[in-house]
Protein 1
Amino acid sequence: MKIAVLVKQVPDTGEQRTLDPITGLVDRRGENVLDEINERALEVALRYKDANKGTEVVVVSMGPDTLTKGLRKALSMGADAALQVLDDALAGADAGRTAAVLACAVRSLAVDVVVAGNESTDGRSGVVPAMVAEHLSLPLLSALDAVELSEVEVLGQRSTATGSLRASVPLPAVISVTERSAEARFPSFKGIMTAKRKVLTVMSVAQLGQLPGNTGQTSILSTLRSPARPAGRRIVDEGNAGHELAQFLRSGSLI
Amino acid sequence: MKNVLTLIETTDTSELGNTTAGLLGAASRIGNPVAVVAVAPGHGSALVGQLGALGATHVILAECEGTGSLLVAPELEALSAAARQVDPVAVIAANSVAGRDVAARFAVRAGAGLLADVVAVDTDGDAIVATHSVLGGDYTVKATITSGPAVITVRQGAIKDIAPAATPTSATVIVTPGSTAATILSTTLETTGSNRPELRGATRVVAGGRGLGSAENFILVDELADKLGAAVGASRAAVDAGYVEQGAQVGQTGVSVSPDLYIALGISGAIQHRAGMQTAKTIVAINSDASAPIFDVADFGVVGDVLTVVPQLISALGAQSDS
């Protein structure tokens, strides 16, 4: 079994994140980390590898040279190899172009299953896994809270508006996991040491080969920072705060 | 007027999904709302009139084997077939898991630009302009597409426009799903026995955090929510502590809400939590820690013990409704 895991680096959600007011793109100059949801996706692959000798796990990503840090972390968690598409021409790529590039990279690996996070913490559009699946003409089973991977299929559970559903998809396939899926492991000391010897391949778009030409493009027209909320009223409870709050809700016609 | 193709969601019981009105409302802001819905062969005729009442001028029933049991494939083939018929300037779907999976695959197929998780749509001359609320509402970004039809997924509950009712024409097409697709094996209904509104799209939300101290005390959140007809939310800390199930989690990971009223009980207001609720119209916070960051975004803040303030609030609200 060969598994590709799609990963990306994102600005740390614990810090104040900003957009460039001119380009509208996420400002990635600060601390960037492997997105937590990608670590969960990697965990799915690593658990299968733990139980099935001979499994190969490759993390695939697109991004600038600072991405190396995140990919090394993935390798230290247990991935066997990493493939990074690095190309200045990809700066500011939208979801459509990103998916086209990732699909090309995945195709070159000839994998049995592609595992992704359901949505990143920065873009949150959650469309890349489905777009990759379409480029590769593979079925998709997305937004899984629990995953059982076998040699022939994936069984998964998804939350719905009314409860949950269980579904299966034959391999090869693309799947995505939610933050309810199993928590990711930490890199072990041994993992960190062996990661240094693992192969991290860097490719340009030209080296990837033929990208699909007709990938629809979006363009950002304007970026506006929301005004800060005006300071509100604050009281310290001296025994009557519940009544004062009720009064506030009534007077604002909020109830 | 130009056609805007709207992918309609149906429920497990083959009724119109609760996103339908908003999707057709969004479509009517751009052009002529045309609805497409995947149905099991021989079904769906009852939907035509209902879709007309919500603004569809034309309804395409795409009959597909496997509708309701296959994921993505029936809706994707329905949308593709309908797009060939009506040559839309835009395709609109819900930003639900199913809606965005279908929209994303369709965009690749059609070579179309995809504008995902949109909170408003408009036109500027011939251009279709989508508005996104980005990084937890810190930014408003407007975007358009440079080629092909625009494929748009609409954040659930964000667009409240209602299209004028129409008497629709209708057509039936027969489509077949692709050779491989994910198959639903079983569905489980969660019977909470509660009449509370769904968190996503709720107009009022009462949310609880670690400051409540225990799962038993979290009942205060439920009681206040029921008093106000509000949905129940929670911080990640409350979920991790086991006070409430994960579906209630509001924030960067979890549900993003934008209600008229958000009441945060014992929630400190970490940046990841604020990213999921700071676009609420009015924010109320009760927390014993005067330095909690939730107070920076609160319109009304109470520094005090939730365990004494909330019961008093509930009783004060009760007195009001009796008067």
Note: Chain A touches chain B through 88 residues (CB under 8 Å).
Protein 2
Amino acid sequence: MKLSTLFTLVVALAVMAAPISASAAGKTLDIVKKRGHLRCQVGTPSGGFYNLDAKGNWYGLDVAVCQAVAAAIFGDKNKVEFQSVSSQARFTALANGESDLLSRTATWTMSRDTQLGLDFLTPNFYDGQGFTVLKSSGITSAFQLKGAKVCVTTGTTSELNLADFSRANNLNITAVTFEDWNVRDDTYLKGGCDAVSIDKSSLAANIISFPKPDDHMILPETISKEPLGPAVRQGDSQWANIVRWSEFAMINAEELGVTSANVDKMRASSKNVDVRRMLGVEGNLNEGLGLSKDWAYNIIKQVGNYGENYEKYIGSGKGALGIDRKGTLNELWTNGGLMYSPPMR
Amino acid sequence: MAIVKAVKTSALPAPLSETSVVGWMKKNLFNSVFNSLLTFVTLYIIFMVVKAVWVWGIADAVWVADNRRECFSINPDGACWAGIFAWVDNIFYGRYPREELWRINLGIFSLFIWLLPLWLPRVKAKISIGLTAVFLYPFLAGYLFAGGDKGIFMQIMFTAAIVCLAANTIHSIIGVLIGRSLPEFLPFLLGQKNVNEKNRRNIFLGVLALGFILVYVWQMNWNLEGVSWTKWGGLFLTFVVAGIGIASALPGGIILALGRRSEMPIARALSISIIELFRSVPLITVLFMATTMFPLFMPEGFVLNKLTQVIIAVCLFSACYMAETVRGGLQTIPRGQFEGGHTIGLGYWQTMGLIIMPQALKNMIPNIVGNFISLLKDTTLVSIIGLFDVLNMLRAIGKDRTWLGLHIEPLVFGAMMFFLICFAMSKYSRHLEVKLSTGHKH
């Protein structure tokens, strides 16, 4: 039996069993508190989102979500046990209660949201499929890829997206498929295909791994929508609220200008009611979540606001992927992006 | 009749064509036009491969750098070994806390100390040393690796393991030095020369009990920080999974093989069904079932960690393969051997343990070690279910921002490690074969 068929079968079985385990699981918050740490599922390391460093620590934009939830619950961002699960088993591991939270560049799609017994929360990164080409090729737009050979990875949606794009625009693109992304990139570098097509964040990570990054460029077109965000098991709204509002707190903090550096000062002396409410100086926003008053303070103090994390892992920071945030969907709504938090009041 | 020659003519030296290198080459490499051509082509291919590997891996390689970009700027065509050096702790120990690494080293070192006497001459009671290693060492290593709070059972077994390791070591030193065993030596130490067998044993047990009490009291206040299994990884994790699999494969396999050949219908049916079930599915399926499906069928709150599930799955799987190897060995033993055993009044277990098994296992050494080697390599499959074994760690290097894209060097390094380990195992099996001389000399 082919491995993927087997995994599908198992996932299907697990999904049938999922409602039982979900209802039997009780309050996730209580379980997590009793256990003393959060079990957060990430994937096998992937550029900018979840990675291991040489000291064995996890870092990345999705890792920051896990840490934020841990900081909100325990006041300590390190009370997380990271589970690295293969992408075939990711939803099963969430459904069977192994993971409390999944934060691993999973695309929010309707079928996943409605059929797998899980709930997607706010996307923390809006990605989309694009193309990398050699600058010397003279191609400056994806619509010039007529008859081109494009390297993609099999078994992902990128193959399908590419075919749709080619058909819709009569481009007659030939997809050259690879099981392994290393081989795919080597083929592209050796001239085996004219372009590589995957999500743009991965393209950016790829380019900086090439011997001469300046020779390559990402084309401006985005051919698919990939809202990436955390997901939780269906049926525990309190838990979903905690994760969702932990993300919102980070986005809101950026909008209000609260950073990990100035959060102490802001808590002590800010006159802004929104800041005071968020940081727990005023009001009782924490009660609905069942957390302590300083939950949002802990997130911002220990993990930082959304913009800080973006720059650190994805943006222009040292050791980040170098994807410019300006003009992308990942900007705050005030700058024309999609990062928008409902008011915290 | 005349004597042709009275003195024996001394033998002529062998002709040059038989002894010199040139002669050997002429005979083996260049004995026809076609073979000469073949030799040149092969030599050329070998030369090209070796040269390419040499240039990439050594001559042009970068050994010291802070990140991959720096490697590229030093030499874009060579290997970037600096990344491997930076990740060496991850590769060998996984995410284990860096200040606790001594525990893994100590655990591995104590296994070495425990098993070393088995290869030393003049050491007696090697069977008990081997048995204690199988039954007590896991508790010593288990506590060293995992740490945390000790239950009462763990306290007792941990103490027993330490006492046993100490006794084994002293016993072996005495054995190597003066060829005595520890029970023989103890009364001598106490100044008593002529002690009978029974008293000797009592003294020995008394000393052991004393040691046990001392160690028990000491360890009550000695606690190690708990390290969750999720932080285990790298080659260490590979060794833990493969080690337990290998250690349990032989006993499990023997039991299953005997069960399969048994005349008791239930034992036979059970053995056959277990063996056939596990042998007819691939290991990855067993692993996936054990880690993903198993928790679904368990009552709520029943938590068995993933590593335990994986180890149990690997043990069952390897025992089933071993069972068929052992059964093959059993079938090489002529019926006369069984009958001979019965004739001299041995029961089933004695016949098996004293006559049949030693011969069967000896015949099967190459296959058994072959099984072990393939099990070691198979354990890299645990990377698919998300454990950070050595393979997953090697793959993670190329995803780390600092070493982004570094994927060939880690895999080459991994291949070298596996080759060394597997080659050592197969060499050792050849050595065992020679030592036990199973190769039939016809």
Note: The mean pLDDT of chain B is 87.
Protein 3
Amino acid sequence: MNIVMPNFASVLPEMFVLGMACAILVIDALLSGRRKVITYSLSQLTLLGALILTVMHSGEKEVVTFGGTFVRDTMGDFLKVFIYVITAVVFLYSRDYIKSRGIDKGEYYVLGLFGMLGMMIMVSAHSLLTIYLGLELLSLSLYALVAFQRDNAVASEAAMKYFVLGAIASGMLLYGMSMLYGVTHSLDIGKIASYIASHQEQQMILAFGLVFVVVGLAFKLGAVPFHMWLPDVYHGAPTSVTLYIGTAPKIAAFAMAIRLLVDGMQGLAAEWQAMFMVLATLSLAIGNIVAIAQTNMKRMLAYSTISHVGFLVLGILAGTREGYVASMFYTITYAIMALGAFGIILLLSRKGFESDQLDDFKGLADRSPWIAFLMLLIMFSMAGVPPTVGFYAKLMVLQTVIDVDMLWIAIVAVLFSVVGAFYYLRVVKLMYFDKPSGSGSLIEAGIDTRVIVSSNAILVLLLGLFPGGLIALCRLAFA
Amino acid sequence: MAFEKIIFYLFSAILVLAALRVITARNPVHSALFLVLAFFSSAAIWVLLEAEFLGIVLVLVYVGAVMVLFLFVVMMLNINIAQLRAGFIRYLPLGAAIGLVVVAEMAIVMIRNFGLDKVARPAAKAADYNNTEAIGRVLYTKYLYAFEIAAVILLVAIIAAIALTMRRRKDTKHQNPSEQVRVRKQDRLRVVKMDAEKKQ
């Protein structure tokens, strides 16, 4: 048999991250407890290096290598760059938090890097096998991170729930993939797509496999009715881990949906569009309505995630290029918004005070007007108030849905967004019009965290005023 | 052909029954043993599918190593079965109903649309076909990338297990010999001067 040499240049970022993660693991074991700053700096350097490697090799044409299990294309590069940047900010925000909670072990960053490696693998997967393995790598790292605070019973419970439900979801996904493999005799996404296109008579059995794939996907995205894990995990996990789970993996999940459904099963579009319609409507409804009843900020943001996932699904469901562009734009901007929201919760918290209750935000404008203003920007953006970017993202998704004549679902989305605006604006009301209750929060965070949180929130406004650049990039990804 | 079919159905029946017993057995040790039986039956089915290497590895690795360790863990942990079963009866009707509906739906789709007349039968391999060799050929070539990722997943599992269990517990008492040796009289003894008690 002749061996085709894989194109190693296109997997350089993955190889670099893997090598560095292993190196950091060893270096950290040799460091004494006080020099954790080296572990942290090395992790950030890894992200910077991966960014440079990815950008250096971008702009070339699509490369499929490693026996058809890996693909490097514009969408992949673009999403990876966002994943690096978001992970870097997550590490930066987490640093003070984990230090004061006594969980600043080197493994925290190593697991974070391995999780990110899993996301990179998912983003540039070209085979069912690689998608599954990337997902498992990501999930395993996240389970461990959720349970990282061992003395915290709530976190352990959340990790257990996440683990069991995640395992069921993986099983579902794997079963669906096995059915697809059984029919198409291939794991390669390109080959599956061409098989589906040429074998219309086997639509039914392919759809059977598709159902399980969509269930697995919905679990990972957190779309209703497969959302049960999300509030508990967001609430129970240490806030810095919630920040991580709530941002970058959403981008990876979006890439996974595109690779599986658009690249692989375009021939079954009618089938998965119908399933996505149910997922989108239910997510928008449950996410926005149940969030109103929450008193915990992290739990409220978890339900808000579910409703945003509804929008994300809506864009893919439109099934047009514009729809995918809108969905990608929505995913990225949502990740930026969530980063800001959880970042501010982290900023306000200190040892022994999590600042994750809604009441903790009472009268924030009196105590620290600047932070309150940043939170106001992010809440406005999540609610979809112009001129923030959240408005523009929602508008783009709705536009594409209306373009494919699904007016009713656009109306449903708008109605539930109005419902959702209530609980975002309630936070604003608490901050600006209520008297502070009890413990005035003292911000201990370093100047670097403050600067990044500020620019994070300002970015939400700037992207809303000038969305053109990001949209152009998203268009490029689906050229 | 007929003989193969009989064997297939025999092992499939054992597999399904064993899998059911894994979740219904009262004793966790029995559950683990039924899981061993389930693994063994699926290994037999894999051998029927001409994947003899995978079948043997399944028996060696899972039955031989993983399940033995698992049994140790089950025996060492003090699992409160009554507590685990508390909600079982309450959720059984709903769970069973949903499960049955799903199985029925799956059966309808499968029987109608999946079969040798719908999907071509994979060609039988020649008598000298070697599954071990076939896997060896592709494992480090075609599936190199996936193979490496699988290795990374195992590494993460190790890191996670160590990071979660290796910690200094607050309630354990360590001895530090060097501190014990270096202790001075002043650290431990306190001389208290008291006035002599007066006789009453």
Note: The first strand of chain A starts at residue 63 and ends at 65.
